Hints:
Layout: E1 2-4, H1 12-24, E2 26-28, E3 34-37, H2 46-59, E4 66-71, E5 81-83, E6 86-87, H3 88-105, E7 110-115, H4 120-141, H5 149-171, E8 178-179, H6 180-187, H7 191-204, E9 208-210, E10 220-223
Parallel strand pairs: 1-4, 4-7
Antiparallel strand pairs: 2-3, 5-6, 8-10, 9-10
Helix pairs in contact: 1-4, 2-3, 5-7, 6-7
Amino acid sequence: VVLPYKDRLLLFSRYLQQLVMESLGKEFDLDGRIVNQGIAVYGNKGSTDQHAYVQQLRDGVLNFFVTFIEVRKDRETQRFEVEPGLTSGDYLQGLLRGTRAALAEKGRESITISIPEVNAFTVGALIALYERAVGFYASLVNINAYHQPGVEAGKKAATEVLQLQQRVREAIGGKPGETAEEMATQLNADPEEVFHALRHLAANDSALQASESAAPATQKFFVIA
């Protein structure tokens, strides 16, 4: 769980999610053994998202580790008070330290990475730190962090869906139309995939209509002449 307490680091947790989960989520190790390795990463912005899941982190299943990211400098411009004697930066610091203490009370472990300010150098340093940590972890668990067969599988499947949609579009006739299952038989395709292709086309092409039917299995699709 990554909790950066700075608006300008809003996307950093999402970047880490892609870096860690794409690199370490592997079925096989380098020796070809099935290991189903991986680490789930989530987080967004500590000051708001802590209200979404800190309750579970503190009192729920202990299967996580928290990284807080602290930015010591509040802002480039003049600081202003949101309450007498307190700035928004003071609140961020209080929320970070308070949340960390609340988790520690229940034995929830965490670390805090503290940077002086957000700039190209410090963000680059954070990226370099995690990229090296991911590569090192991959070597420890004997997996290849630098290929993504799961991502490629999704892209290939998406290509097949688009190709099927083209075949479906070409096969649609006039009234009374055909059901998805009837068309799937003609195309030697999965009826469910054909149905979703037909429904997508009907929702976005005014020349294609779908009959009124409460059951998807009996709904017919046809082209308006």
